[in-house]
Amino acid sequence: MVIEIEKPSSVRLSKVAISKTHGEDSPYFAGWKAYDENPYDEVHNQSGVIQMGLAENQVSFDLLEKYLEEHHEASSWGKGAPGFRENALFQDYHGLKSFRQAMANFMEQIRGGKVKFDPDRIVLTAGATAANELLTFILADPGDALLVPTPYYPGFDRDLRWRTGVKIVPIHCNSSNNFQITPQALEAAYQSAESMDLKVRGILITNPSNPLGSAIQSSILNDILDFAVHKNIHLVSDEIYSGSTFSPSEFVSIAEILRNRNYKDAERVHIVYSLSKDLGLPGFRVGTIYSYNDDVVTTARRMSSFTLISSQTQHLLACMLSNHEFTQNYIKTNRERLNKRYDMIIQGLKKAGIECLKGNAGLFCWMNLSPLLNEPTRQGELELWNIILNQVKLNISPGSSCHCSEPGWFRVCFANMSEQTLRVALQRIHKFMEQRKVCSVNR
Amino acid sequence: MVAISKIATGNGHGEDSPYFDGWKAYETNPFHPIDRPDGVIQMGLAENQLCFNFIKKWVMEHPEASLCSAEGVNKFKETALFQDYHGMPEFREAVAKFMGKVRGGRVKFDPDRIVMSGGATGAHEMVAFCLADPGEAFLVPTPYYPGFDRDLSWRTGVELVPVVCESSNNFKITRAALEAAYEKAKEANLRVKGLLITNPSNPLGTILDQDTLKGIVKFINEKNIHLIGDEIYAATVFMEPEFVSISEIIEEVECNRDLIHIVYSLSKDMGFPGFRVGIVYSYNDAVVSCARKMSSFGLVSSQTQHLIAKMLSDDDFVDRFIVESKEHLLKRHKYFTLSLSQVGIGSLKSNAGLFIWMDLRKLLKEKTFDAEMDLWRVIINEVKLNVSPGSSFHCDEPGWFRVCFANMDDNTMEVALLRITTFMHKHNEAMVPRKLCRRASLKLSLSRRRDDFMSPNMMSPHSPIPQSPLIRART
């Protein structure tokens, strides 16, 4: 018989557990709730909320499905499943060599063969989420700081800070120069950290940028690397959208900058990659760290024990990404389709009287709604966001959740839906803008 | 030179232990029945390889469980996109059902309390992050799995305080030992936040009896500390007495359920360490919520969730698997321990796990850990078996070794036994009666095809502590 007892005061969980640094209280996530409760469906729920806050790439799945249908060896382990046992047992934190080789090749192809990647410098993690956290554990001590240009992916607040105890100090960028990172902004951020008694251990850039949807120019990459050298700190380049640039010539990787310098200063540079965006496989949890620093590679490899990639998934992707014909075609076609989508949304927004930052990459555009704000404040932005969410029924991401210093900007994803759905979304925006024009005319 | 963190430069990764000399010997000269018959046999690896034929058959008969087959590809897109940290409902339901079946249907598990993690390795670290601050402590009964030093402490800053268990009472976890450890922590100014037990035990291969479990639950409630039950070997209990889970005990005694958390995995029970299926099951809502958010750092691949969901929801397969697995383990355990006893080697009486806790105390030159290391080096370099010395498990008494028996085929087992027998004969010739020497005339059957052997080239060369620096990827 179970005796009911009065519950004593529960023993406290850790500070990490109690803290809000997981970041889920931000409006970035609140919009999801509205979507979850009333999701748009082309057939069954045409008045539902359209999800435009999710940076997923759904435009190229048919290419993946076609590959799988034609290549059963990538599948369960082929006829008779001879490799099943070996695969199920494989937990070596070095990762499947064939998979690392395939990833290195894929990363090279994305960069047009301009740089080479050594498979032995590739460390595997379960997603870029894990990769960014892992690197932070290695590069900084609790209480230290990383400099991150704004606006930035909201998940960094959790990934870089939550369990690591490391702080983020923003490098403020603004629209006056298209949110480009300047040497002045870098220095200002560094000084700001120093004034708070924080030891800066590194800079983390996202290139191409989320949420801006644009690649960083090579002159700026050089400035950033020079700055890192000057301050003797690390440089992490999150390049998870590198395969999502609309044209191959638009993207310059930090790896190319290093190659141009004969890899001098390389030991402070680390690249994060993932297949969640370029290949549209976020569920498979495929992240990598590529470091030019041997100690970082060794330590990262050891730490990856906490977050290894399923050997089943490594096997599938090793087969797929070793097929050069497939990868060449995929990269090219994916770029073209994303470009087409981007043009479609930009034209549609323009027709509605909305401007966006000129973008050349990514799964989203950076939309400027500052003219629509009641007041040029974060509050004004959130009010507008609420209207767009609840009346226009579009879940888009407010710039404030990306730590943008200027109110009125919104990230709008366009690759996670069919063209038809995107047309519906654009129609709604158009209607909304028309109604606002009518309202302002009638005042 | 740009500096890296203290965590990175320290040795919290645990790989500096002399323990890894054994791995080196194996790596440089791995046994193969045809290519390297004098190579080192890996007995330091707690893997379950005895049921693969049974599982393979299921995999071949169920192509829809794979996303890549014609039958399964229609699920590819939605699965590839699924990154919700709640995990697939069908996956959680299947795992919850499996956990219940492994406990004989005596308890039910709620799928909504199942949180994913990067293997049990990831689960343990995640639980430590949720329950303790840096500098706080967990009590852990010795001997314990060496990986805990890394998993619970490395990045979390949590301290481990041993609960010393002794061979004099078969390493039972006594109230006195628990209290002593708790006091020791207090004296060292360490705030104890929890007690971690592994049941069935690694390395002992034993299960905790009801009274001990009840005593443990009483202890943690009195001290108001958490109880983490690592039950990753639950399905490897091959003999009476029956396994009793923490989940069953809390139905029978007064307990604050907010203190109770279970770590589970499919790496041992199913033999799928590569698939990284770790589970945290907590009775504490706040822990479930927090752990779920943290699981973002180590989610199970949706491709794997899909496969496991299909496999473990096949009741017929699961019921037969559980029985088959026990039968294979029992058979192997019985044969191995009987053969060892016939040459005078005893081991702790055990009914679970993928290993035995071998007693070589009488072979030690002296009752010291140095002598244990000396004996261990002899076993590796002369007998050519990689076994794990008790000191690496923080055993307080020298002379014990963990020896894995489920990670090899029958022929390799015979070779291992032959070597042990030969060694014992050499060591103690006078003590072995002639009639038992028939063991020495074991013949290796070489008429088997090459593919039948689990050659090192097919076996993944990894340690139970997968972070061995000596591991090279072979594929």
From TrEMBL, chain A:
CDD domains: AAT_like. Keywords: Pyridoxal phosphate. InterPro entries: Aminotransferase_I/II_large (IPR004839), Ethylene_sulfur-biosynth (IPR050478), NHTrfase_class1_PyrdxlP-BS (IPR004838), PyrdxlP-dep_Trfase (IPR015424), PyrdxlP-dep_Trfase_major (IPR015421), PyrdxlP-dep_Trfase_small (IPR015422). GO terms for molecular function: 1-aminocyclopropane-1-carboxylate synthase activity; pyridoxal phosphate binding; transaminase activity. Residues 50-429 form the Aminotransferase class I/classII large domain. PANTHER family: AMINOTRANSFERASE CLASS I_CLASSII DOMAIN-CONTAINING PROTEIN (PTHR43795:SF39), BIFUNCTIONAL ASPARTATE AMINOTRANSFERASE AND GLUTAMATE/ASPARTATE-PREPHENATE AMINOTRANSFERASE-RELATED (PTHR43795). Belongs to the class-I pyridoxal-phosphate-dependent aminotransferase family. This is Aminotransferase class I/classII large domain-containing protein. It comes from Gossypium barbadense.
TrEMBL record, chain B:
Pfam families: Aminotran_1_2 (PF00155). InterPro entries: Aminotransferase_I/II_large, Ethylene_sulfur-biosynth, NHTrfase_class1_PyrdxlP-BS, PyrdxlP-dep_Trfase, PyrdxlP-dep_Trfase_major, PyrdxlP-dep_Trfase_small. One of its GO terms (molecular function) is transaminase activity. Its EC number is 4.4.1.14. Keywords: Ethylene biosynthesis, Fruit ripening, Lyase, Pyridoxal phosphate, S-adenosyl-L-methionine. Pathway: Alkene biosynthesis; ethylene biosynthesis via S-adenosyl-L-methionine; ethylene from S-adenosyl-L-methionine: step 1/2. It comes from the Eukaryota. It catalyses: S-adenosyl-L-methionine = 1-aminocyclopropane-1-carboxylate + S-methyl-5'-thioadenosine + H(+). Its cofactor is pyridoxal 5'-phosphate. Residues 41-420 form the Aminotransferase class I/classII large domain. Residues 452-475 are annotated as: Disordered. GO terms for biological process: ethylene biosynthetic process; fruit ripening. Belongs to the class-I pyridoxal-phosphate-dependent aminotransferase family. This is 1-aminocyclopropane-1-carboxylate synthase. It comes from Gossypium darwinii (Darwin's cotton). The lineage of its organism: Eukaryota, Viridiplantae, Streptophyta, Embryophyta, Tracheophyta.
